[in-house]
Amino acid sequence: MAYNHGREDRKWRIWKEAEEKMLREHGVDEAVIEQIRMEDRADFNSNRRFYRWTSDFGEYLEGIAGNEQQAEPNTVADLLDEIEDEKLYQALLTVDKHTLLILLLKMQGYSTREIAAMAGLTERAVYKRLERLRKKLKPIFYPFGEI
Question: What is the rounded CA–CA span in Å between residue 76 and residue 109?
Fold first, then answer.
């Protein structure tokens, strides 16, 4: 949404009037209140200049994010549905459900210790399943050997 100076100015004035009322109730000198008002207005103007130029960039980024709306898979079925490479899909269909769950949790950023607790396995078992999966997928990603 674009920066609306009128709306922001009204919000600032309402906030400032409430603050000044409170300061007067506590017996603050009018000269001090005026000095605070001038400094706050200078801050407001500085922010206005900043937001006026950055709001267009923010709209641009929001537009790009809306175009590339890719949700992270939350289930093993979602993970398999997202795969476009036929060889990879076929290879993952031959893997057991624990390994697919480990793969999904790893993609979501969980540590091996957390995955082991969630899957009901030991950490060593998780490492071993990931190692076997890598060996199974290596011919798909490197059909002519290591690079």
Answer: 15
